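Assemble and predict.
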Amino acid sequence: SYELTQPPSVSVSPGQTAIISCSGERLGSKFVSWYQQKAGQSPVMVISDDSKRPSGIPERFSGSNSGTTATLTISGTQAVDEAEYYCQAWDNRIAVFGAGTRLTVL
Amino acid sequence: QVLLVQSGAEMKKPGASVKVSCKASGYTFTNYYLHWVRQAPGRGLEWLGWFNPRNGDSKYTQKLQGRVTMTADMSINTVYMELQRLTSDDTAFYFCARVETEASDFDYWGQGTLVTVSS
């Protein structure tokens, strides 16, 4: 079965850039979405179709996808961005989620 | 605005069934698939399947094939996810989420329903 691999945790200081990776076989040939989930809340989509930012999502969130790795970048990270982040792609009509990356803003 | 409102928490015994509802509003119900995703406590997201209100089609993850059924009541814009023969491994938050096509992004999510399976 298809797998997406994310680092378990990423730490960043306020104002710095956070980079969260997601890797998978031929991932660049698929569309990747990213979801932010804060404690006790439902996931919220922050990036769709590799790099599109939904309405209401701050400009500091951006995404890219090429080769075997998709990347979520948060520029000027704020304390409010502390959350779990999941990447997601489709493989043979099945939704696959990464295991999640815990972003800590120190 | 788009809202997906789910039914309340459930506590079930092993072997029982549970039926979780997801009521949609703020958009044309038949224009979007409704998917189900679950999350065991402290764990990641697991996709369960989808229901297409336009034609009544559904698709389920192979892991739950034979135990899960997704249906809808079109008169009240509500989709249901029923899971049978529950075990403790089914203890999780269950989320419904809207998707424009069969396989695009999950743009709106319900608030989640906690299903606890315990003897």
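The CA atoms of residues 55 and 98 of chain B lie 16 Å apart.
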